[in-house]
Design a protein that fits this description.
This protein is α+β, with helices and mostly antiparallel strands. The protein is built from 14 helices and 31 strands. Strands 1, 2, 3, 4, 5, 6, 7 and 8 form an 8-stranded mixed β-sheet that branches. Helix 3 crosses helix 6 and helix 10 packs across helix 11. The radius of gyration is 26 Å and the shape is globular. The chain starts with 14 loop residues before the first helix and ends in a 10-residue tail after the last strand.
């Protein structure tokens, strides 16, 4: 999505920008509390605006006092990019009362800084035309998410709800270094952890009881790795390295943990399943899980990870912090071709299980369908799919988020059978919870400042092992990359690393490695579960090389216009074309082209493997010739569907 900067705006008079400027110069009315709602643009700084407004109307006396006391005002008077949710004096008065105080007195300086930082996003100018329901991509200065909970049309205007209860009274007040949205509440996100927040939410008393009795609540306590200090690894940035997209390497500033819970409410349990007690829930879990795990049917200790109730509860838990949009929507970038359904496979905290999130193109664009279990090409079974309740999603906590779901979620016989019968395409970024929990994964924007190149100290990522000399990098989504979902894992140097995959169901699979060959790549030996996958892979060789034999499909002048015969020939050599479901879209490196239509995208077939039981596997790579290495995705394809899976 295009981000607009209003500093020296007339240097960038593209067609889109001209249209945008015309729109913002128009008068936009508000129906909230009769406050005129118009977008202004001024050369003054954000801090100066607040001070002037204080003098003009006494609107921000308390906010100015807070910013002065905490020394934050100096930031807002300096160059940079800021989005500020500015509470009125009436909002501060109500906030003080809610905290049992009459004024700012009695709050510690650290608490006052947190309050100030909760109102400010640094590093991005987010006008309301960039709002969509869900969490904003950039965290507040207090390292917390700001959520747009609803955008309600009223007449010719829109009312925006922020963090569930705050309303924007006047939007898009543009200043030289940012934008101000005037609010009727002080943004004050909860200080509860996930388990503490659920404990006080009366809608989920039965599920909370199950969390406690299974002792799985103990798995939700971690918030941050206090032993990690990014300054200890500054030498990794010396000298600074600039990636092809123009991004400069940077270290993650923290190492946070995160959790997501999908929960049925007490009302759903009672009205849909006649479940009102922990005993009845335990019986339901046994009904669902004993057929899948008959060898564990006699395990009665509910704290045992093999017990049916324990598995039931754990399948509702994910060790990534997934707001509603981060299940799949945030990865549906302009790279993804909108005629193909999208699938995301997420590891749960129930051992060796996945859940599927599907985006069905024929339905509402924000629909997350969980475990629909309809194979590609079949009629989608919307009655089977679990959905997040739109009126009770993105419930915030310091180390996670929780959502209400509309029916029981379980890894039952149907789900188990389905997961082992469909292609599992796993984006490289989905392997690593750290990328999601530290707000790295996905699309942040197409401005140069939005393109990130994250490098990771040894031990930062749990399921990754690297040898000395390996520089492991994540490049977030950028329009110039011809990558699945637009992002990639990228390495350089004399690399030697191993990655533990998410759990794969039992079965016989063809395993494939998706990558982009370019001249700067090196040569690497790929291995799977400790066994080398043929001869080393030369990542410098494009698909059109005689060694691989790629021919561009959809050429009517050829005897094989669809490319299917060429597909067979390439498979015989151990390769496949890229999928037809994604593209690059800004043309910087590869033109605007679909992956299947490019000789710069390949899948290397690693081999056929039989997995006797569900579980994780190890994908290893060792440099044979120094150069770059990129890792886009892995595919696990049941051999029974290879002839019918399509080209997407």
């Amino acid at each position: 999505m295009k981000k607009y900067i209003f500093i020296n705006a007339f240097q960038y008079l593209t067609k889109v920008t001209l249209i945008f400027i015309i729109v913002i110069m128009g008068l936009v009315s508000s129906c909230k509390e009769d406050i005129v709602n118009y977008r202004t643009e001024t050369k003054e700084m954000l801090g100066d605006y607040l001070v002037r407004y204080k003098k003009d109307s006494s609107q921000f006396i308390e906010f100015n006092r807070l910013l002065d006391t905490t020394k934050v005002m100096g930031l807002l008077k300096a160059y940079g990019e800021y989005t500020c949710f500015a509470p009125t004096d009436a909002a501060f008065k109500a906030f003080y009362q809610s905290q049992g105080r009459k004024s700012m007195k009695g709050f510690s300086l650290d608490t006052l800084k947190q309050i100030a930082y909760n109102q400010i996003i640094k590093g991005q100018i987010i006008t309301t035309d960039l709002f969509k329901t869900g969490r904003l991509a950039t965290l507040s200065m207090n390292d917390r998410y700001v959520t747009v909970d609803s955008i309600i049309p009223v007449g010719s205007s829109l009312i925006y709800k922020i963090n569930k209860t705050a309303s924007i009274l006047r939007k898009d007040q543009m200043v030289n270094n940012g934008v101000i949205h005037i609010t009727n509440e002080v943004l004050n996100p909860t200080q509860f952890t996930s388990i503490e927040a659920i404990a006080v939410d009366k809608r989920f008393k039965l599920f909370y009881e199950a969390l406690q009795k299974t002792h799985l609540a103990d798995s939700l306590l971690k918030t941050k790795d206090d032993s990690y200090n990014w300054e200890n690894y500054k030498s990794m940035l010396n000298p600074p390295f600039t990636q092809g997209g123009g991004s400069v390497d940077q270290l993650p500033l923290s190492r946070k943990y995160g959790f997501t819970l999908l929960m049925e409410s007490d009302v759903t349990y009672k009205e849909k399943y006649n479940i009102e007690t922990i005993g009845q829930l335990q019986a339901k879990a046994k009904e669902l899980y004993d057929p899948i795990y008959p060898e564990d049917a006699s395990v009665t200790d509910i704290t045992d990870r093999r017990n049916s109730l324990n598995r039931f509860v754990a399948y509702h838990m994910i060790n990534k912090q997934l707001s509603y949009s981060k299940f799949i929507n945030d990865y549906d970038t302009q790279h993804m071709i909108k005629t193909y359904d999208m699938y995301e496979y997420i590891e749960t905290m129930c051992p060796n299980t996945l859940l599927e999130v599907r985006k069905v193109r024929t339905q509402a664009p924000d629909a997350n369908y969980i475990n629909m279990c309809s194979k590609p090409g079949d009629t989608p079974d919307f009655t089977r799919a679990i959905q997040i309740q739109s009126n009770n999603k993105d419930n915030d906590a310091t180390n996670g988020v929780y959502h209400e779901i509309d029916k029981i979620l379980a890894y039952d016989a149907t789900v188990s059978s389905y997961m082992g019968a469909v292609r599992l395409r796993l984006d490289a970024a989905s392997f690593f919870p750290e990328l999601t929990n530290n707000n790295m994964r996905g699309f942040l924007g197409d401005k140069a400042a939005d393109i990130k190149s994250w490098i990771f100290p040894k031990g930062y990522i749990d399921r990754l092992k690297t040898a000395e000399g390996t520089v492991f990098t994540y490049l977030n989504s950028f329009g110039g990359y011809l990558d699945y979902e637009g992002d990639e894992v990228y390495l350089r140097g004399q690399y030697d690393f191993s990655v533990v995959t998410p759990p794969i169901p039992a079965g016989t699979y063809e395993v494939r490695f998706g990558y982009q060959p370019t001249g700067g790549r090196g040569v690497a030996q790929l291995s799977f579960d400790g066994t080398p996958c043929g001869i080393p892979l030369d990542l410098r060789v494009n698909a059109s090389s005689p060694l691989i034999g790629y021919v561009v499909p959809n050429d009517a002048s050829l005897d094989d216009p669809s490319g299917y015969e060429n597909d067979k020939m390439m498979r015989n050599r151990g390769y496949m074309k890229g999928p037809s479901s994604y593209k690059s879209y800004n043309g910087v490196f590869y033109g605007i082209t679909v992956a299947r239509q490019s000789d710069r995208v390949l899948r290397r077939i690693l081999g056929i493997y039989q997995f006797d039981k569900p579980g994780t596997h190890v994908f290893s790579v060792k440099s044979v010739m120094v150069g770059q290495f990129m890792f886009d995705y892995l595919e696990f394809v049941p051999t029974s569907i290879i002839g019918t899976e399509g080209v997407d």
